[in-house]
User: Which sequence fits this backbone?
C-alpha cells in the first residue's frame, strides 16, 4: 500500500493559502503543489527577487508579497495587505546560524521561527477561514524553553540549542493555539508538522564548517524536499486532528510518507506553553482575540 502524496491532495479550487518562505526549499515545493491542486497561493517571502521566478513558474495562481519575519513592522504591513485566506502555513525559518538579532533585538532563530510567526498568526487569525499549520522539527526534542532568557541575552549562545528551543516553541504554540480556539468554540484548526530530514538549502546557511558536513548528510541520509513537504501539505489539506502533529512515518521520523508523529514530553507541557504564549504576546505586542461563538 502506497503512502499519502501530492496526488491525494483534494481539489483546492477557490481556496487561498499563505505560505511563508515560499521562495525555496519546502516552501517552494508546498506552493507548487497547492497551486497544482487549484489553490491560489500567496508567497510571503523576505527575498522577493528569489521568489518571483518561482511564482512565474507556478503561473497565475501564485503571487509574491514581501514578509520579513525578523521585522515586526514588516509582519504588520503584510498582515494589513491580506483580506482573507483559508490556510496559513508558517513554513519559513532559519537553522543553527551564528548569533544575530532581529529588528526588535530578538535572537534571530526564536525571533524568526517563533515570534515572527506568532505575531503573524495573531494579526491574521480573524482573516483565516480554515486552519493554521506551523512547522516544527524533530530537533524540538533537544529544545528547552528558557522563559527567563528566551533571547539568549544572559546565556552563552549555542546555535543548535537555540534552534531546538525555537522549534519546540513552534510546536507548543500550535498546540496552545488549538486549545484556545477550542475553548472559544471556534471551528478553526491549528496543527503542526515537521519534514523529517529533508535536503534543502536550510542546511547551507549555518555559516560554519557544519555546512560541508550537512551537505554530505543531505546526499546520504536526507529525503528530497518534495517528500519533506508532504507532512505540511497533509496537515494543510487532509482531514486532521485538531492540535495534531504530522511528519514522516519511516526511519524514526526522518523519512517516508506523512502520518501522525510523536513528540517530546516538554512539548506537551501546558503550563510552560501558556507562559510562553503570554511572554510572546508581551514581546511582540500582538494580543490574540478569541471571541466566543
Assistant:
Amino acid at each position: 500500500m502506497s503512502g499519502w502524496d501530492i496526488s491525494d491532495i483534494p481539489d483546492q479550487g477557490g481556496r487561498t493559502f499563505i505560505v511563508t518562505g515560499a521562495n525555496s526549499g519546502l516552501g517552494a515545493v508546498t506552493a507548487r503543489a497547492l497551486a497544482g491542486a487549484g489553490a491560489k497561493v500567496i508567497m510571503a517571502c523576505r527575498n522577493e527577487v528569489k521568489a518571483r521566478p518561482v511564482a512565474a513558474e507556478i503561473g497565475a495562481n501564485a503571487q509574491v508579497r514581501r514578509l520579513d519575519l525578523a521585522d515586526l513592522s514588516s509582519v504588520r504591513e503584510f498582515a494589513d495587505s491580506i483580506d482573507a485566506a483559508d490556510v496559513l502555513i508558517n513554513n519559513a525559518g532559519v537553522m543553527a546560524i551564528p548569533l544575530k538579532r532581529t529588528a526588535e533585538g530578538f535572537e534571530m532563530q526564536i525571533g524568526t521561527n517563533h515570534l515572527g510567526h506568532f505575531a503573524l498568526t495573531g494579526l491574521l487569525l480573524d482573516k483565516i477561514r480554515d486552519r493554521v499549520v506551523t512547522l516544527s522539527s524533530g530537533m524540538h526534542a533537544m529544545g528547552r524553553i528558557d522563559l527567563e532568557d528566551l533571547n539568549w541575552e544572559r546565556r552563552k549562545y549555542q546555535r543548535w540549542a537555540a534552534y531546538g528551543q525555537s522549534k519546540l516553541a513552534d510546536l507548543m504554540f500550535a498546540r496552545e493555539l488549538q486549545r484556545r480556539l477550542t475553548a472559544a468554540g471556534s471551528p478553526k484548526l491549528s496543527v503542526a508538522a515537521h519534514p523529517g530530514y529533508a535536503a534543502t538549502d536550510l542546511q547551507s546557511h549555518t555559516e560554519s564548517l557544519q555546512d560541508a558536513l550537512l551537505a554530505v548528510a543531505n546526499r546520504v541520509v536526507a529525503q528530497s524536499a518534495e517528500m519533506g513537504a508532504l507532512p505540511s501539505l497533509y496537515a494543510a489539506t487532509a482531514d486532521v486532528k485538531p492540535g495534531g502533529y504530522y511528519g514522516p512515518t519511516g526511519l524514526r521520523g526522518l523519512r517516508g510518507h506523512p502520518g501522525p508523529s510523536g513528540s517530546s514530553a516538554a512539548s506537551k507541557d501546558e503550563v510552560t506553553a501558556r507562559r510562553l504564549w503570554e511572554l510572546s504576546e508581551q514581546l511582540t505586542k500582538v494580543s490574540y482575540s478569541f471571541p466566543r461563538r
